[in-house]
Amino acid sequence: MRQLPPVLCLLSLLLTGQWGVAESDGRPNFVLIMADDLGIGDVGCYGNGTIRTPNIDRLASEGVKLSQHVAAAPLCTPSRAAFMTGRHALRAGLGSTGRVQVLLFLGGSGGLPPTETTFAKRLQQQGYTTGLVGKWHLGVSCETRGDHCHHPNQHGFSFFYGLPFTLFNDCVPGKGTVVLRDLQHALQNLSLLLSLGVLTLVFARLCGLLAVSVRVLAALTCLSVLAWAAWLLPFGFLSTWNCILMRNQEVVEQPMAVDTVPQRLLREAQNFITRNADGPFLLFLSLVHVHTPLFESPDFAGKSRHGRYGDNVEEMDWIIGKVTETVDTLGLAQNTLMYFTSDHGGHLEDADGGWNGIYKGGKAMGGWEGGIRVPGIFRWPGRLPAGKVVDAPTSLMDLYPTLTRLAQDTRPDRELDGHDLMPLLEGKTKRSEHEFMFHYCGVYLNAVRWHPPGSDSIFKLHFFTPNFFPPGAGGCYGTGICLCHGAHVTHHSPPLLYDLLRDPSESRPLTPRDEPRFAEILRRTGEAVERHRQTVAGVEPPGGGSHRAPNIPNQLSWRNILWRPWLQPCCGAFPFCGCREDAAQG
Questions:
Q1: Residue closest to 28 by CA, chosen among 401, 406, 404
Q2: Residues 199, 203, 206, 211: is their CA dihedral positive or negative?
């Protein structure tokens, strides 16, 4: 066949947008955008009529919207681990057995194990350029400060810029603390009492009121100093230890200047797309909106009808619009699958938290829909139908098999909990491969949903539910977050049963009188749970039992989450960490 002259070839490429490796070999680019703590009710195309989200709504109108998209966990660390791996978090040791449900210190040794496989690692091995911009929250190092065993670069991301931890109140002066507040207060009180006791004894000895040996005073003084150190060193400098920015494995800002983080993340995301426009590439833009503390960007402050939270949602939507604009301007839209979601539902106990619409519960509230039902929007012009709505149950864990299949990765894999979404998205099937979906609160099997073949009903059983505090409230306001074990939950026998088709807000539990299939539903889901347990080591059965198999290290144990100075990421000489990012870079 006669070849076209080079000038005509170039003109053809420019006119068709068919540019680079990704188009020539049939593999698309991927732009994945995940919000943090966003309630499904905060988005216009999911029913919000007062917060403006035109750019997210545009993605939905130009693509496919999932109405029953579900996170694998109602908290950041386990949900993100499941998203990245296509597997429930407890398979990676990131399911909690107690009060600590997420990573608390960058200087801890817990995180996503090096033995785990992420979709980024699989795509990188397929020749993709992979980048993560934004929040990670899956650990940094294991044994030494420089091993970076949990770092994004070790999990398939050739480029990383952002927060290896997360954005939290301790990052902003005056916002208070959220890390083990009761332990901090106990250490403070103990330190004060010991110091007061030492001063009292010294005064009594000087005045001749009490005979106290110098050795006893020295011992008590040492205890007082140790108590102050146990509080002040890990907790008094949290903004320095946890609130940092990294570029790949280098700390570039410590502590980070929070007010400019949104602009810098946007710039890095746009630059990554531009640098890799000849593809194929994967960009995971992991936003820090709308986790508290909320931003106060001048261009958005006071512009919404819902205070600072609404301002932040609208700023997040603007960022998504700018990223979409970059993709479109570079002529990449026809060959780029864009995806938008949230890691879990809104945080109801937080005064600045989100809204989960008609769904009960929220962040950290086990299997209630409000904590796990999230937005799910896919746009791929020319490949996916515009304006389509998929009502079948889907999961964040479905991204892993969907991406690897589109990247033409046919290599054997591990036991996955997700399924390829493309048949649903393209309209080739109306039923999800998720006949059963299993919902975890920590390592404990909390709830199961069943979509019976030949039925539109989606039945959901709750084996236990969190105890709201105060009683009758809609959340755990006394502690700020619900827990999954012991006296913090109520077990149900028989389980609470709802039909999400007729009662999506889970307000009217069914009984054998209401539902003729009641006994069958319990039997079929019980059988599914037993089959599932065979594939997941250490799953907590509905009636109790072992927590975790010994061959799965618990990444969220006290030993792994507590601060270790020798693991602390630092720019400069530890403990005098501190640096500002070069203005020319960031």
A1: 406
A2: negative
Q: Please give the pLDDT value at position 583.
A: 58
Q: Say yes or no: 144 and 89 in one domain.
A: yes
- Asked if 577 is an active-site residue, the reply is no
Residue located via tokens 């139908």:
385
251, 283: one domain: yes
| 498-539 pLDDT, tens digit each | 999 999 999 999 999 999 999 999 999 999 999 999 998 654
Residue 217 has pLDDT above 90, yes or no: no
Q: Backbone phi, then psi, for 131, in 5-degree steps?
A: -140, 145
At 546, phi and psi to the nearest 5?
-70, 150
Q: Give ∠ CA 82-368-556 in degrees, rounded to 5.
A: 40
Query: Is residue 254 left, alpha or beta, with left meaning phi > 0 and alpha meaning psi from -120 to 50?
Result: beta
- Tell me which H or E stretch contains 265: helix 261-275
User: What's the CATH code of the domain at 119?
Assistant: 3.40.720.10
The confidence score (pLDDT) of residue 585 equals 56
Residues 212 and 278 occupy one common structural domain = no
Task: Say whether 76 is catalytic.
Answer: yes
Domain that holds residue 219: 181-235
Q: Residue 441 carries which side chain, given as an amino acid letter? A: C
Question: In angstroms, what is the C-alpha Rg of the chain?
Answer: 26
**Are 495 and 439 spatial neighbours (Cβ–Cβ below 8 Å)?**
no
73 & 194 share domain: no
Q: What is the mean pLDDT of residues 322-337?
A: 98
Same domain, 318 and 444: yes
Contacts of 322 (CB under 8 A, 6+ apart): 266, 270
For residues 68 and 391, the answer to whether their CB atoms sit within 8 Å is yes
Q: Tell me how crowded residue 485 is: count the other CB atoms within 10 A of its CB.
A: 17
**Confidence grade of residue 478 (pLDDT, cut at 50, 70, 90):** confident
State how many domains the chain has.
2
Burial class (CB in 10 A: 0-12, 13-18, 19+), 5: exposed
202 shares its domain with 253: no
Out of 9, 45, 69, 76, the active site residue is 76
Task: Choose the catalytic residue: 69, 88, 137, 344.
Answer: 137
Let me know if residue 209 belongs to a domain.
yes
For 109, 537, 541, the CA distances from 550, given in Å and listed in that order, are 18, 9, 17
Q: Are residues 163 and 218 in the same domain?
A: no
